[in-house]
Amino acid sequence: MKRLFPYFQFLRPHWLPFVGALLCGVIYGAASGFGLPYMIDQVFPRIFPRSDEIAEVGLWTLVMYVAWFPAVFALRGVSGYFNVYLINYCGVKVLEKIRLNVFEKLQRLPLAFHHKNREGDLLSRVMADTTQLQTTVLQVGNDIIKQPVTFVGAMTALVVMALKDENLAFILLSLVVIPLCVFPVRRIGNMLMTRALRMQEEAGSMTAVLSENLSAAREVRAFNLEDRELNRFRESSEDFFTARMKVIKYAHLLTPLIEIITAVGVSAAIFQASRKGVHLDTVIPVIVALYMSYEPVKKLGGIHNQIKQAFASLDRLDDILDAPETIVSPPAPKEMKDVRGEITFEGVSYSYENGDGEPEDIPAIANLNLSLKAGETVALVGPSGAGKSTLAGLLPRFHDPSEGKVFLDGVDLREFSLKDLRDSVALVPQRPFLFDATVRENVLLGQTEQTDLEVEKVCELAYADEFVKEFRRGYEERLGEDGSRLSGGQLQRIALARAFLKNAPILILDEATSALDAENEDKIRDAMTKLIEGKTTLLIAHRFSSLKLAHRILVMDEGKIIADGSHDELHRECDLYRKLYDSQFGIIHEDAD
Q1: Is the pLDDT at 264 greater than 80, yes or no?
Q2: Domain of 31: which CATH number?
Q3: pTM metric for this prediction
Q4: Nearest to residue 345, comparing CAs of 400, 271, 266, 278?
């Protein structure tokens, strides 16, 4: 149970209902374990005297005796209800806090963590594993307090009855079977935890397959992958079914085992009672008390199994909560004001992690040195995998260098707070993401201090107003999940409008014109000319027509800068640049085959 101790802190704001739940559980357990056997032992003989005795119970006395029965059950019912309600209130509040903590941690973890873990599996952990925890709390909350107190109450009743009548001392020997229940509880619980962890992993895999399929709906249809995807999901579903059935097998194996063991104890008590000639009305309270002591053992065994399943989910959540936050703000960040935009890369290297969490053998960036003047526009060109996007990702600290440093106005980026740094960088990605919100909300992205007029102005600058005005609700039109209602070019115009609105001193353009036709590309290039004025701009160029905006061009290959200069210089002196440029514009060299 010490695994749960760190989460007890979440109970502090809810200590009052938690204490109330404990008290109600104690009352329920005492009424069940001690109250019922004691009532049968003390009250029933006065209501039903033996045949050789004469009943001398008055009417009102009889009413009082009989009233014990509904009174005890009313006490059990009311206390049991409030115990379940209050304990579940506290449990669900704690789980809500855990889910929020997991989600908050995911916001802080570096992109490398998200690249290593499948989106569907993370989704399963946040939703399915926390739901499993919640289900366990709801089920366990019904018995976690009541059953131990019921057991203690029943044991107390047995001891009291044994001390009153020496002929009943044998019943204490019947309790020897209770320790025997510990062995199957521990053994099956450990086996169940392993299977439950496997089941949750399979659930994550199945969610990942589903998430991937829904995200690639167009590609699935374009390449006739429906049957392949169906087989993938079927196989994943079958693996989950197998894992789930193993959990069910062990989860429900414990109850019959404990029932058999405890039945042996009850049989031993009945056998000894018959041998000693104990009267039936004396035996009945003993059998009830034995049952009330064995039943909590059986239910506590089930609780143990459910907790083991919860621990399996908790392990998967702890993988997120305990993951190192490698990209963090310093304890005392330097103030960022009047950013000029002078950027320096000094001996920078960076390697992505492989599947084992180790750095890859070939670095994405290798010992790179580079300086960008304030207000300068620098283009990056090179083949796929050359390290262009990785280099750009160092500026907003999507990842930190494995070696070397990146400076902004002479200060290491790691000395600024993440919020201030990222407020100073505007990113226009090649495939921007749009939220399922209105045009206005997608342009604002939380910048609530901006006015509606400013939103419309930046959309005009990005030529986004041309299609926004065609919407029935204009800027209040919802764009669908991931901007599904927009074309690629329209998505890029919204992203440009965001950059205009942010007006950050540092700008990263990851081929912001790649999805535009020639006519619109000219318009957007005019807008980008205004956008980059006075800003230090890193332009990742896949289409060489956008190089007209750059003051200088860098050619990258295998994580290194192999050439730096103007278009004419590079076309004349750099073989790789000339090859890339000429192949895009269809220029055939005389020495070509």
Answers
A1: no
A2: 1.20.1560.10
A3: 0.74
A4: 400
